[in-house]
Amino acid sequence: MEKQLQDTLFPLTSHPTTREVAGLVKTGGVDALTEAQRRADEARYQEITCRSALNRVEGMPFRWTLNPYRGCTHACHYCFARRYHTQFELGAGDEFSSIILVKTNLIAVLRRELDRPAWTRELVAVGTATDPYQPIEGHYRLTRASLEALALASTPVGLVTKGPMVVRDIDMLQELSRRAAATVYISVPSIDEDAWRRLEPGTAHPLQRLRAVRALADAGIRAGVLMAPIVPGITSDRERLAATVRAIADHGARFVGANVLHLEGGTRTHFLEFLSREYPELMDSYGDLYPGLTKYAPDGFRSEVRSIVRELQKEAGLSSREEDRSEEPVQPPSMAAQGGFEWERR
Ligand code: SF4
Fold first, then answer.
1. For residue 62, what is the DSSP state?
2. CB 3.0-4.6 Å disulfide test: which of 88, 89, 266, 293 passes with 26?
3. How far is the CA of 228 from the centre of ligand 1 (A)?
4. Which atom of ligand 1 lies at the shortest distance from residue 82's CA?
5. What pLDDT score does 346 carry?
6. Distance, CA of 280 to CA of 227 (rounded, Å)
7. Has residue 345 got a pLDDT over 70?
8. Atom 1 in ligand 1: which residue has the minimum CA distance?
9. Where does residue 300 rank: exposed (0-12), middle (13-18), buried (19+ CB within 10 A)?
10. Kind and range of the H or E element at 185?
11. 308 C-alpha to center of ligand 1: Å?
12. Domain 2-325 falls in which CATH fold?
C-alpha cells in the first residue's frame, strides 16, 4: 500500500519535491517515507528535488536565501525553524531534528539560476532556514558546492551556522571574499556548559564553535558571533553574558550581535514542553514574560539584555554588527529572533 502510494506520488526514479513529501506524510505518516535513509545519527534523510535554489524573500535586508537542507539534527529546542517543519506535515518536535529533507539537485538548479543574464549578484543569505553545516553536510557537501557556484558567479554571501565544519570550506570562503564578499555568522548563544547541553543537544561545544571563529579570522575571513537567542532565566544573567562576550572577544570575532528568545507557533509549543521538563521552576516566569500567545519578551526586558551586551561588548573591545557594517560592501543579513536568523519567509 505504501509502495503504491509512493509510486503514484513519486513517478520514475526522481526524488519528490517538498510538496510531494508533505502529501505522502499527510496520507501515510512518516513511515510512508520509505526512500528516506537512516544514517548513523539515527536521523532519516529524505532526498528531494527542489524547483528553485535561490528563494526570493520580502521584508528583509537582503532578497535571496539558499538552504540545502530542511530540518536540523542540531535539535536546538528554541529553534525558530521548528515551526516551519509543519509545512511538510512533519512535527516541530522530534521530527524536526530526525527527518531531514536534502535538496540533491540544488547545485544544478543554482548554477542555472546564477547563469541567467538577469542575475544581478545580490547578496545571498545561506542557512536562513536550517544549518548548512549540520553533520550530514559532510556526506552531501551541498553547502560547499553552493559556495563554489556562488564564488564563480561573483555573488556575495552571508552565512550563518553553528557547525564548526565551516572551517573545511575556508578556501571557498576566501575565494568568495576575493571575488565578491563573504561574512560568516557563527551562532554561540552562550558558553554555559549546562545550558548548551540542555538547549542545543545536537550541536558542537560552544568553544569548538569559537575555535572555528578563530580559524576563519586567521584566514582573513570576516567572521562574527551571534548570541541568539539569549534565553531568559537560563543564559540571560549578567555573569553568563559576560563570560560569553569575553570568550567571543578572545577568539578574534569581528563583531557580536545578540537577541532575546522569540516564541511562536510550533516552536513555542515545543519549547514550553521542553521547559516544563527541564526547567519546571521557570514556568511561572515564562507565563509572565510570554503571556498568552505573546511572541516577544517585554520591550523593557529585551532592551535591558541588549544594553548589558552592548556594555560588555565595548569593555571587550568588540564591535557590534552595526558598527562593523560600515566596512561591508553589502548589506548583511539581519538577525531576527533566535537560533539562527529569521531571514526567510517560509
Ligand atoms: S537553531 Fe540553527 S542549529 Fe539549532 S536546530 Fe535550528 S537551524 Fe539547527
1. S
2. 89
3. 11
4. 6
5. 26
6. 24
7. no
8. 339
9. exposed
10. strand 182-187
11. 25
12. pyruvate-formate lyase- activating enzyme (3.80.30)
